Amino acid sequence: MISKLSSDEVLSFLIIVSVILITARVLGEIFRKFKQPAVIGEILAGVLLGPSLLGTLFPDLFHSLFTSENGVPYKAFDGLAQIGIILLMFIAGFEVDLKQIRKQGKKAASISLMGLLFPFALGFIAVWFFYENIFSDASHANKVIPAMFFGTALSITALSVIAKILLDLNILRSKIGNLVLTAAMIDDFLGWILFSIIIQMMGKSDGSFASVSMVLGFTVFILTIGRWLVDKILLVADKFLSIGGLITIAVSLCLLSAVLTEYLGVRGIFGAFLMGVAIGDSKHFPERLQSILHQFVVNIIAPLFFASIGLRVNFVTNFNLEIVAIILFIACFAKLVGAGIGSRMSGMSRNESYAVAFGMNARGSQEIVLGTLALQAKIIDEPIFVGLVVMTVITILIAGPLMKYFLAKDEPRGKSAANIEPHIAVINQQGNSVITTAS
Amino acid sequence: MVSKLSSEEVLNFLIIVSVILITARLLGEICRRYKQPAVIGEIIAGIILGPSLFGTIFPGSFNAIFIAEPRSYAAFDGLANMGIILLMFIAGFEVDLRQIRKQGKQAASISIMGLIFPFALGFATVYFFYDRIFSVPSLNKSIPAMFFGTALSITALSVIAKILLDMDMLRSKLGNLILTAAMINDFLGWILFSIIIQLMRTGKEDGSFSSVTMVLIYTVVLLTVGKWIVDKILMVAKRFLSIGVMITLAVCLCLLSAVFTEYLGVRSIFGAFLMGVVIGDSKHFPERLQQILHQFVVNIIAPLFFASIGLRVNFVANFDMEIIAIILLIACLAKIIGSGIGARLSGLSRNESYVIAFGMNSRGSQEIVLGALALQAKIIDEPVFVGLIIMTVITILMAGPVMKYYIGRHEQSVKAINPDSQVQTVSI
């Protein structure tokens, strides 16, 4: 007989979901009020409810909430949180605009590649040479994997966070905004491929070549044949099915892709992300459907995942100032220098380059997803994970104000900055007018 | 350390969700194509994937998917539970308190006759033919008898609304009467069921009075003070918050009410349903939000619950022709006679009364939810549960065609008389 939840377990499960959802969303909204990404508040909710605070102050309450009934209700909650992160990555995939990458790719490439290679190299080197300073458990025989992970973690940029900051600064559709977004997309994309390769390499020490080719093969497959197939499926579905049918198809495709990648040994979220890219690229995917998925995932399911992070790790006992400082320093230094040089190379002014560099420096939810997976796969330990989360929060907090500062400094000479190349999309002219009216 | 799912469990969990979601929605869409409620297809999906078919033919892969990692299935069950809670929440939106107040008197006789008659008949049947239906003898016959009465008296609001919509008579006089009567029925039915669950929990005869009052008090408080508070909250929220926050707010209120009722010992879906009624009644609850919730729940989460019903029970092994026949006969007889008499009492013609009676006769997803809960609470056993489901499916299938037939006859016979069928065009 199939096991199911008993009545007490259901009650406990419902309480967990309610408490976490309410706390996460309340704090998330508070952060949003202060123009910060809601994800910070959601993580904070987990820290407050988790072993760091509630578990220390009121251990009895904490245990009766989260570890009662042999932990079965929490497992059920964890399933919900997993669906949350898969759907969130799926939606993040919508934001990657392949057409724009193709169009602006060359210009954005130098920002993106420099912003990827530099942090990757620096992160790799830092771990390689200062391994003992960062990792408490020095028994790692193989330094390559933690070093590669670290490089990747430092090189990912938070697409959604940047988009939000650009939107708040009202430069989302300007030249800089477009460049930063495209560069971030490429970064994200390559970063996830890199991470999938690392996860694959971890499984077997000898099969690194096969695993790399598998990840790349899957990526190429989804982006070519898969994309074409998805487009055709959506074309037919759009003609014959109701909006409800379309939602199911989209979610089913996402789940299938997630299952397939998880089965291949890459994490499920990578498959969900790729499928999101493929589906978001199809012009038969209605805007309204995207909005329904977006609202539900961002407001109900995804917060559960981010709060669950804080529940897993004790942020107080695992807080190591040295590690946090090292990670923060390398992360900011590498990304700022790399992305800064890249934007100078693509012909921007000094102040514009600073603005781009700080924009690219902001990490976000994907950084944390990456960290969680690495923690789960035992590539990193808790203090490093805490360091990554703290680093993410700080880079997000500094990005907005600093970008605003450097753009303001640039404005006296802003005539050249607002000079838009003729072949960039029409929407940019709106951005142009925004900048000219501002100056 | 809080326990979490391992990587294999996550993979297994994802496979379970994908397989069930895709099968359920596929069959659901096929049913919808043939103008039948999708819920029938979703239940069939569970039967196909469950021990009845897939488990018998391919026991190896069945075990690998659903049983090998018990915690993965537990996680899925959590998801399915969320699904049914959110579905009942949405079902609550459909109950229109204003319309009940307005049309209440007219609909009352249909509704009450359609409730009391099946309840009495169901109760009497179980009380006197207990051994025929239940394989396990029980000392206390009154709880199964009460459950049976309740199960027979509930009408499927959403199914009727869909049928009426397909027949293009949702806003006619008959359509309105049926809908209002079904709403009242639903509402009273759930209160009854909550009381039964409470009676069972306490087990003793002395605790029954306090548990009944608890259910009633919660209902009354939520529908008066709670309604006012929720309305005020939504009014403030609508002014200051984005649509995203409103969604969270609605879901949080639903969860809180669900947790509270589950804590009281009534099932959580009752709380979700009541909160749905209250929120749906507020005029500060935006249409778009309702849309988003509706689409996501109906298309993604709720199918998981209906499919999970088929997964739990072996429909082949528990198929008992005698029980099914008895249940089907009593259910149809009681409801059709009861609602028919009620309709005649409220002054409708003979053919119109038939239309209403067959409309009220169709059961739906809520019947199945009720059955699943009763099975879980061990009020009924598997064969009876299978009987309830088959009865539900058959009453749904016959409602549309029979109603159409009697409407045709009604229109023929009333050609001479001037029909005042547009008097009650209340917006729904």
Number of strands of chain A: 0
> Which H/E pattern describes the elements of chain B?
HHHHHHHHHHHHHHHHHH
Spans of chain A of at least 5 consecutive residues whose pLDDT stays below 50 are 414-439
Oligomer: heterodimer
Largest sheet of chain A: none
Q: Which band does the percent of strand residues of chain A land in?
A: under 5%
First CA to last CA of chain A: what distance?
A: 71 Å
| Radius of gyration of chain A using CA atoms only | 22 Å
- Order of SSEs of chain A: HHHHHHHHHHHHHHHHHHHH
Class inferred from helices and paired strands of chain A: mainly alpha
Q: What number is the mean pLDDT of chain B?
A: 80
Sheet-strand content of chain B, in percent, reads under 5%
- What is the global morphology of chain B? globular
Shape of chain A: globular
Q: Tally the helices of chain B: what do you get?
A: 18
Radius of gyration of chain B: 22 Å
* Uncertain stretches of 5 or more adjacent residues of chain B: 419-428
Name the average pLDDT of chain A: 78
- Give the chain pair forming the largest contact, with residue counts: A-B, 64 and 63 residues
